[in-house]
Known about the structure:
Strands 2-28-27-25-24 form a 5-stranded mixed sheet, with no helix packed on it. A 4-stranded antiparallel sheet has the order 3-31-30-29, with no helix packed on it. It has 2 helices and 31 strands. The termini are far apart. A hairpin with a 5-residue loop joins strand 6 (80-84) and strand 7 (90-95). By secondary structure, the chain is mainly β. It has helices at 2-25, 298-301; strands at residues 31-32, 45-47, 53-55, 61-66, 72-76, 80-84, 90-95, 100-105, 111-116, 123-128, 133-136, 141-146, 153-159, 162-168, 175-182, 186-190, 195-200, 207-214, 220-228, 231-234, 240-247, 250-257, 262-265, 275-278, 281-287, 289-290, 309-315, 321-325, 334-340, 343-348, 353-358.
Amino acid sequence: MKKILIIISILLFLGAIGFFLWPYFRPSAVTTVQPLPPPSTPGPVSTTPAARITQEIAEPILSYWFTDAGDLIYFSENGKVFRRTPQGISEEIAALDQEFQSAAPSPDGAFAVAAFGPYAAPTLSLLNAKDKIWQPLPAGATSAAWDQTKNRLIYTKENGAITGIYNFDLKTKKSTEMMRFPAQGLRAIWTGTDRVYLSELPSAAALSSLLSVNLKTRALALIANEVPGLMSIWAPNGETGLLFANSFKENLLTLIDKKGTTISSAPFVTLPSKCLFEPETVFCAVPRVLPSGIVLPDDWLKRKFYSDDRIVLWNTNTNEVKIIADNTPFAIDAEKLLRRGNILYFINRYDRKLYSIKI
């Protein structure tokens, strides 16, 4: 009898453990991500007829941007940089002699910082699109960011466990140290203020933090601490941002202020890298379905997962969601969204070509 009671006690104990752990290990069904109805307090929802999608460039590209003069600059997959004028005249302006990683254009589009090589230890170079020349940034630079309102450039550089922030003068090509602090593996995002946001490379398997630095006062503030899968983008004024987190297999996208305080939950789930943040409005490519077993952002960044998106416009003040493109003639996995006037541009990851939608 005593042995039976002991066995029953053990079974009850194991059953209790199984009850609490079951949500974490049970197989999940395919998750359909719908912006309608939103999970948070909804605002009005409006829809538009299916938009016509136009292919802008016939060859696969890696990155693109527009200059103030309307020229389209793009990096092709064959290792060349092209400029296309508004009249449709194209010319090669530079070549890529290393493995391309990313490019960040200046506000006027006349320059761009390109990162080459491995993500953990990139090589950064400055492209002068007008003069068609490359200018390497100082050795050891790990990330660079533009002031979103002026052609001011900063970069980060690590020395052991210390990260320094430097100003790079576009005219003299000289660097000036602005500040340093103990940190490693940070990437910079500069908004149109004296505030710079610094974050670690995102992964659901790692706890990442988000910091802000005031370039005038040198004040350092912690915005988010030890968040799995952390990714963020910011409005041009730096006052609000979109923060993605993968917490206990739940994908969360929230609107936050400059102190990291949650303002509201987004009425859909997507990655910040699939969004364009403008003042008070956000364009986003939202996956229709997230299959079971998909880990964000890792599987999307490593191209193990390709989504099928609808494109929406979210008014962060009214919470209104407007569908810009739905029922598209082919699957879209959109990234690098950019708007000029009433035209929204994006790269489709399925074929790496540039497309546009009239909004």
